[in-house]
Design goal:
The complex is a heterodimer.
Chain A (H helix, E strand, L loop, with lengths): L6 E6 L11 H7 L4 E5 L5 H15 L2 E6 L2 H11 L8 E5 L1 H5 L5 H20 L7 E3 L5 E4 L3 H12 L4 E4 L14 E4 L4 E4 H14 L3 E4 L2 E9 L2 E8 L14 H5 L3 E3 L8 E3 L1 E2 L11 E2 L9 H5 L12 E7 L1 E4 L3 E3 L16 E3 H7 L20 E8 L16 H15 L4 E6 L8 H10 L3 E4 L4 E5 L2 E8 L4 E7 L1 E6 L1 E3 L1 H10 L26 E3 L9 H21 L1 E3 L4 E3 L9 H5 L5 E4 L2 E4 L9 H5 L5 E3 L3 H13 L9 E5 L1 H12 L8 E5 L8 H9 L4 E6 L6 H17 L7 E5 L5 H21 L1
Parallel strand pairs in A: 1-2, 1-3, 3-4, 6-7, 6-18, 7-10, 18-29, 20-27, 21-22, 21-27, 22-23, 35-36, 35-37, 37-38
Antiparallel strand pairs in A: 5-30, 8-9, 11-12, 12-17, 13-14, 15-16, 19-28, 24-25, 25-26, 31-34, 32-33
Helix pairs in contact in A: 1-5, 5-17, 6-7, 6-14, 11-12, 18-21
Chain B lengths: L8 E4 L2 H6 L1 H14 L3 E2 L9 H5 L5 H17 L4 E4 L2 H16 L1 H13 L14 H4 E3 H7 L1 H4 L5 E2 L5 E4 L2 H4 L15 H8 L21 H4 L1 H17 L4 E4 L2 H18 L6 E4 H8 L4 H5 L16 E2 L3
Parallel strand pairs in B: 1-2, 1-3, 3-4, 6-7, 7-8
Antiparallel strand pairs in B: 5-9
Helix pairs in contact in B: 2-15, 4-5, 8-11, 13-14
The chains are: A alpha/beta, B alpha/beta.
């Protein structure tokens, strides 16, 4: 009998993350199980020993681990319960969905008891099943052709993986191509950035495993059976890269001048141009927004490479994994009008200064202000848009600006020892070896003032920086010829777009969120998608390259190790099956096909949604894992702990919704204690009779969330409407059931929906 | 941007406007009438406590209680949209609504006080009003009617050099509700543009305080008037004729003390000071005495505006 099974519960204190909010002593008192263990860090090897010893000593049949989210540590604990089958363990998420979202200790403790009890009831319904291993295609897409994307692509290609590198602009190279000099803290010397980038670029271009697509972006992505089907849009270049020999004669005859964005618009190029000297593909490109179609270039081109009528192209691409390296952009200076960037020509950004002092820049490396003279007084303002709590500011530190300012200050000092350079800083952040570089620059005569300037104004031809010297406690006005702003790094538009397209979790600042900041720094919330470089958060070139190669290594792991799939998928009893094909028609995920006169179910694409079950006239299909019973048991476990006057709302979410709900906790937002989240493999598995059971047995409300990108979304929505109608007929209030869209990036929206639904149910309870 | 009402408005009277520049109220009514804004005034409404609050005479509990009483008056009149002529009333009332909605203990305490004093009818229920949806400044309402201002303009003031001074309590307290920019406030510049004029836009110290600082003007006059002088010098550098305000506190600081600061700085400041409602009313043909109320001004309006030029139709 399932009720006679010996269940052991293991409580994790999570170093106070759980135990500070949930009273674990009270939890222990309330549970009726064979064995209860507790440890400060269950996921540690000591935790493993506690669990394993109990399994052997007591002879446990089933295990419940009450700790963090299964997304964090399910695999760990499945391993720790050996020799038990991994699916005889269930995790009660009392951290992300309890201690991190609730602050009232008593209520949080009650909720933890209900969640653990749900897991106890559920795990009794579990049977031993074996995981399924699958192989995904090894082809990989790297999105973004900056230093991170280039390194990721190259690393994979050298390991034999076919890579498509997708870059939105006409050339790969990214920000590193334009920053001029870079520096290594140990060498205490600046060196040419392009000279470091070029060998990487060449190696990449010559590698046969890499296909570079420029002027191209991902506009659509679908995942099926471990394969990502990407749709790329390649904008016309109007110049055939195969024919163009980059002789530049076309540009000579072009009469249209356009601001050169590679030079931060400090110089002009023609409407037909090469982005920069070492750009790849080695070919010109036409800026069609500004081209007047005079045809001069077409006539001049002896290679007949120019085609003004070229059209955009859609390219389908199938890959098994994706690396996102879509990078950053710099803070919009319109948001800080007080610094006069839009008013005064001699207020520039560090990026622009980098172009000005770069030998391939608009002034060929000469430091000149707008009047053509060398500035005698340069003031740099740090933390522009970073560490800024005012409207439109970013609370985070952009990490690289201190060292960038030091570098540029030193280059100025080196070329023009008479020019005074003053850096107005909040704190100088130069960890590790960078501190030596900071000292070196102080010794070179660069001056420092602690204070965040309030504004930059112009008086009598002079720029004036107004600031408080916070060390002296004095207000001062500093005259300057050139003011340089160290602007914040923020996620690029491409980063924001790709997060939407791939449904990736993002931070509140819009960067792509890693699946765990400590132990999974390159994986995203979505299996098979990895992130690197500044799309992830502000970082320097070194860190970007390290993360890029880490991401490549993760893809290799994935390619070689295959993917472990939860075995809760459909199975065919071939003795009963009449091969009528009805299930093939019903399956939204196209996971079924006929092979060798039998129905074959692709384990990678079957979600276990159960739609095929209902249509099979032969009752030949089953879905592993006792799912119906588990849902009943979980609900029973929660509702049996309901107290008088307590409000209980059951929330059914699949993997995507569950990740979004976890993100609410990770970001320390809150929602009412009434919300009890139940993870299901597909929300379609929540049947009308489950919902009725819930409402008849004490649940005050039922909330079902589904990601609109799921192929079953429309169907589930329709089904829920049907259940609502039925509830009304039965005299129940259909408003107690709700269906809602859920997205991983919009966890705050989900928290809001929980709050609103709880308030609505509270009102219904009051009126009844 | 927030939804802006043009009806069911309680025009919230301001102590400083009534006492110092009654023309601001007359001008607001004149412009609202011209633009077809539905508003009323209540005799029952009291002071928001602003000056007293910032001088530590009224604590936050008293201030919120008085706010709750005024909100109830507005609701009972069926005019839940409170529109302030003074930036301080605006900031104070918005804060009170936020606190009354959010802080259960404060709300319960105030409601208990009402009950104990036979004022149970004044009790405030959570979310009776919403800070963003019910509390406005006159400039917000004018902004909602921005597109129709133009057709009512009678006089062309575009020959004057015009600058704006946006009050701190409109721009720097409830950022999320400020229209037209916080770091570079422009709502009045946009409204003035609708009158066919162009302001000088950005100028040195545009974002700075007027210097009033409530009690600072009296207890710390040096500091207070140094801030005012910075701004007056910047305005004079730009040769400004008219400085346009949205807060009577700032208006007083500049208009009443201009002469004193002129002497202090040894420089003859010439700008006149008009509230945005006065400015628009003037451009719409409001009477100098009955609408604009020029006699209440210290810097004579006619020292700059000597004659009015009709708009060429």
């Amino acid at each position: 009998m399932r009720d006679d099974l010996k269940v052991g519960v293991f409580l994790c204190e999570c170093g106070g993350n759980i135990a500070d909010t949930v009273d674990l002593n009270k939890v222990r008192e309330e549970l009726d199980v064979e064995f209860i263990g507790q440890f400060e860090n269950l996921c540690s090897l000591n935790g493993c020993k506690i669990i394993r010893d109990a399994i052997f000593d007591i002879g446990l049949d089933r295990v419940v681990v009450a700790a963090c989210s299964p997304i964090s540590h399910e695999k760990t604990f499945q391993d720790y319960i050996k020799p038990l089958n991994p699916y005889l363990m269930d995790m009660a998420n009392i951290r992300e969905q309890c201690s991190w979202v609730h602050s009232d200790k008593e209520k949080a403790t009650d909720k933890a008891i209900a969640l653990i009890n749900a897991s106890i009831e559920k795990v009794k319904q579990s049977d031993a099943v074996d995981p399924i291993y699958c192989q995904t295609p090894t082809e990989t897409a790297v999105i973004g052709g900056g230093i991170a994307g280039m390194n990721a692509a190259l690393s994979l290609a050298k390991q034999g993986t076919k890579v498509t590198l997708i870059e939105q602009s006409p050339s790969i190279g990214g920000h590193m191509a334009k920053i001029g000099k870079v520096f290594s803290p140990v060498k205490i010397a600046e060196e040419c950035g392009m000279c470091l980038l070029n060998p990487i670029l060449n190696e990449l271009v010559w590698n046969e495993n890499i296909d570079v697509l420029t002027n191209t972006k991902v506009i659509e992505a679908k995942r099926r059976a471990g394969t990502y089907n990407l749709i790329l849009e390649k904008s016309p270049r109007y110049v055939d890269t195969e024919k163009c020999i980059a002789c530049g004669k076309c540009a000579e005859v072009c009469e249209v001048e356009v601001p050169n964005d590679w030079n931060d618009n400090l110089s002009m190029h023609k409407a037909i141009y090469r982005p920069f000297g070492q750009s790849y593909p080695e070919s010109y490109v036409i800026d069609m927004d500004n081209c007047i179609k005079c045809g001069n270039c077409v006539k001049e081109c002896s290679m007949r490479a120019i085609n003004l009528r070229e059209k955009e192209e859609r390219i389908p691409l199938q890959v098994g994994s994706v690396i996102v390296a879509t990078g950053h952009k710099l803070y919009d200076m319109e948001k800080r009008p007080e610094y006069g960037y839009t008013l005064f020509r001699d207020v520039i950004t560090q990026s622009e200064l980098g172009r000005i002092i770069g030998v391939n820049g608009p002034t060929k490396g000469k430091l000149l202000r707008s009047n053509g003279k060398v500035p005698k007084r340069v003031v740099m303002i740090q933390c522009v848009g970073s560490r800024d709590e005012k409207p439109d500011g970013h609370k985070y530190c952009s990490k690289i600006c201190c060292t960038v300012a030091l570098k540029n200050a030193n280059i100025i000092k080196h070329k023009h020892p008479d020019t005074d350079v003053l850096i107005c800083y909040t704190d100088v952040r130069t960890p590790g070896m960078f501190e030596k570089y900071y000292k070196h620059i102080q010794e070179n005569g660069v001056r420092f003032l602690r204070g965040r300037p309030g504004e930059v104004v112009k008086k009598g031809g002079n720029l004036i920086v107004r600031t408080e010297d916070t060390l002296k406690g004095e207000f001062i006005e500093i005259e300057a010829d050139l003011v340089v702003l160290s602007t914040a790094m923020e996620p690029s538009e491409g980063t924001k777009e790709i997060a939407e397209i791939l449904n990736l979790g993002t931070t509140e600042d819009g960067f792509i969120k890693e699946s765990h900041p400590k132990i999974k720094p390159v994986a995203t919330d979505v299996q098979g998608i990895y992130v690197c470089g500044t799309a992830h958060e502000p970082k320097d070139i070194t860190d970007s390259i390290m993360q890029a190669t880490a991401a490549a290594s993760k893809v290799s792991e994935y390619n070689h190790g295959g993917v472990e799939i939860e075995p809760f998928i459909a199975q065919i009893d071939t003795d009963k099956c009449a091969v009528c094909g009805e299930c093939i028609n019903r399956c939204k995920y196209k996971s079924m096909s006929i092979q060798n006169d039998e129905i074959y179910i692709d384990p990678m694409s079957c979600t276990g949604c159960g739609k095929c079950l209902v249509g099979c006239s032969q009752h030949a299909i089953t879905v592993n894992g006792n799912i119906d019973e588990k849902i009943f048991a979980t609900m029973k476990g929660i509702l049996s702990k309901k107290k008088d006057g307590e409000r209980v709302i059951l929330v059914f979410l699949d993997n995507i919704g569950y990740a979004a709900a976890d993100n609410i906790g990770v970001n320390r937002l809150s929602y009412p204690e009434s919300i009890h989240i139940i993870k299901v493999i597909s929300v379609n598995r929540v049947r009308p009779r489950h919902i009725r059971y819930a409402l008849e047995n004490g649940a005050d409300g039922v909330f079902i969330g589904e990601f609109p990108g799921d192929l079953m979304y429309d169907e589930v929505e329709l089904k829920i409407q049907g259940v609502k109608d039925r509830l009304e007929e039965l005299g129940e209030d259909p408003n107690r059931l709700t269906f809602s869209k859920v997205y991983i990036p919009y966890f705050s929206g989900l928290a809001r929906k929980f709050n609103e639904f709880d308030a609505k149910i509270a009102k219904l309870d009051e009126t009844e | 941007m927030k939804d802006l009402p043009t009806e069911d408005i309680l025009l919230f009277r301001s102590c400083l406007v009534s006492v110092e520049y009654p023309g601001v109220e007359a001008s607001t009514k004149f412009v609202f009438d011209t633009l077809g804004v539905d508003y009323a005034i209540s005799e029952k409404q009291t002071c928001c406590t602003g000056l007293g609050h910032y001088s530590d005479v009224f604590n936050q509990i008293d201030t919120s209680a008085i706010g709750a009483r005024n909100f109830k008056i507005a609701k009972e009149m069926g005019r839940p949209n409170l529109v302030m002529m003074c930036a301080t009333c605006y900031a104070i009332n918005k804060k009170s609504v936020k606190l009354l909605n959010k802080k259960d203990r404060l709300r319960n305490h105030i409601n208990k006080l009402f009950e104990e004093n036979g004022l149970a009818h004044l009790k405030y229920e959570k979310n009776d009003l919403k800070p963003t949806e019910n509390i406005f400044h006159v400039v917000d309402i004018l902004y909602a009617k921005k597109d129709v201002i133009k057709k009512h303009i009678k006089y062309d003031l575009s020959d004057f050099t015009i600058a704006t001074h946006h009050g701190c309590h409109y721009c720097k307290v409830h950022y999320e509700d400020t229209i037209g920019g916080v770091r570079n406030p422009n709502i009045m510049d946009e409204l003035i543009e609708e009158c066919g004029c162009k302001t000088i836009g950005w100028y040195d110290h545009k974002r700075a305080t007027c210097g009033t600082g409530f009690r600072q003007r009296y207890s710390n006059p040096d500091l207070s008037f140094t801030a005012t002088a910075d701004k007056m010098n910047a305005i004079e550098d730009e040769d400004v004729d008219i400085l346009v305000h949205l807060c009577p506190n700032c208006h007083i600081q500049f208009d009443r003390y201009q002469d004193l600061i002129s002497k202090r700085e040894g420089r003859n400041f010439k700008a006149i000071h008009l509230n945005i409602a006065q400015f628009i009313a003037l451009a719409m043909g409001g009477d100098f005495d009955k609408v604009i109320g020029v006699k209440a001004h210290t810097v004579p309006i006619d020292s700059v505006i000597k004659e009015l030029k009709e708009v060429k139709k």
